[in-house]
């Protein structure tokens, strides 16, 4: 679903892309939480941005062209909100994974929690299948639970004997991907969970994985500071981005699949061109970045860093940032 009022035409030419971001490189910062922001994500129509925090809350912002306005704070989790994801086609439904051994589903229209699903451990990652039927959640003990979204009940669990990092579905929702501590991507059929293949992606721990909206690519980020871009159908590595120096913690594709944002403890977020691997631009930051998210129809990037309050810099700041704003509106 696209918000036609604000949808942006893709820019095909690399030099034009670079020129665009030379004049659309302003960052605006927003106070969202009282502690560190772990996860940010856009609703499928791009009208709302959600952030989850160590302070146990979920903040909802409305996007008004070039500005975010905080509209609501969801409370209910009794532990840190470690990751969130929106429904792929329902713009009001949001799911969150928490260390309090639960998954919650929130409705931003009714401003209510519509379901609390108990799970067996402290949850650290979550993924909602693109067809909307299933939510997968992984915990610190490498157990992945699959929740049927019609009943909001756990229908199956899979215990892995290796470190499970991030989880994701392909766009058809019939393959389930997970990254592990051995540098591999495990790909399983869904819903049967039969192992299809194991791809050795990195020499170091494979930390994060992201599929692009068009279904052409997926990308992985690793402890070796590399980002690998893969052909989603051929399972072939197309190119490697190597501009970061620290373990890659988070990835996001732009709406057209052309740009890949990657971030780490480096004091820069890298924006690379998926077609050539070239750097399009970068975003200077002052602290480690653990979550980035491109808007679903525009060249706008939301992100959050491990910023500290000055002058002692001991207390976490729960702020999020929006980048890609035109210089004349900064």
From TrEMBL:
SMART domains associated with the record: WD40 (SM00320)
Keywords: Repeat, WD repeat
GO BP terms in the entry: mRNA export from nucleus
Gene Ontology CC terms, in alphabetical order: THO complex part of transcription export complex
PROSITE patterns: WD_REPEATS_1, WD_REPEATS_2, WD_REPEATS_REGION
Keyword Metal-binding: no
Pfam families from the UniProt entry: Beta-prop_THOC3
Keyword Metal-binding annotated: no
Matching PANTHER family: THO COMPLEX SUBUNIT 3 (PTHR22839:SF0), THO COMPLEX SUBUNIT 3 THO3 (PTHR22839)
Family the UniProt entry places it in: Belongs to the THOC3 family.
Name assigned to this protein: (diamondback moth) hypothetical protein
Organism: Plutella xylostella (Diamondback moth)
């Amino acid at each position: 679903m696209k918000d036609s009022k604000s949808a942006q035409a893709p820019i095909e030419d690399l030099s034009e892309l670079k020129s665009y971001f030379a004049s659309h490189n302003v960052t605006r910062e927003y106070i969202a939480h009282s502690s560190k922001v772990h996860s940010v994500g856009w609703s499928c129509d791009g009208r709302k941005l959600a952030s989850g925090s160590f302070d146990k809350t979920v903040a909802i912002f409305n996007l008004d062209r070039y500005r975010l306005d905080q509209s609501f704070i969801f409370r209910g989790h009794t532990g840190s909100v470690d990751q969130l994801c929106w429904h792929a086609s329902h713009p009001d439904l949001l799911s969150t994974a928490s260390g309090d051994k639960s998954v919650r589903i929130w409705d931003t229209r009714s401003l209510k929690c519509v379901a609390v699903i108990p799970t067996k451990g402290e949850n650290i990652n979550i993924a909602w299948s693109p067809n909307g039927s299933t939510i997968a959640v992984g915990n610190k003990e490498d157990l992945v639970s699959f929740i049927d979204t019609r009943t909001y009940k756990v229908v199956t669990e899979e215990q892995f004997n290796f470190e499970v990092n991030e989880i994701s579905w392909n766009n058809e929702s019939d393959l389930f991907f997970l990254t592990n501590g051995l540098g591999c991507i495990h790909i399983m059929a869904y819903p049967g969970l039969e192992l299809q293949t194991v791809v050795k992606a990195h020499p170091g721990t494979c930390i994060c994985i992201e599929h692009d909206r068009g279904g052409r690519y997926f990308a992985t980020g690793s402890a070796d500071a590399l980002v690998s871009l893969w052909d989603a159908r051929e399972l072939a590595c197309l190119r490697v981005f190597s501009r970061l120096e620290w373990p890659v913690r988070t990835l996001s594709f732009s709406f057209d699949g052309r740009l890949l944002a990657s971030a780490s403890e480096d004091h820069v977020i890298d924006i690379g061109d998926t077609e050539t691997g070239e750097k399009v631009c970068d975003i200077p930051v002052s602290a480690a970045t653990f979550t980035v998210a491109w808007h679903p129809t525009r060249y706008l990037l939301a992100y959050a860093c491990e910023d500290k309050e000055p002058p002692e810099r001991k207390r976490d700041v729960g702020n999020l940032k929006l980048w890609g704003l035109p210089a004349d509106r900064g």
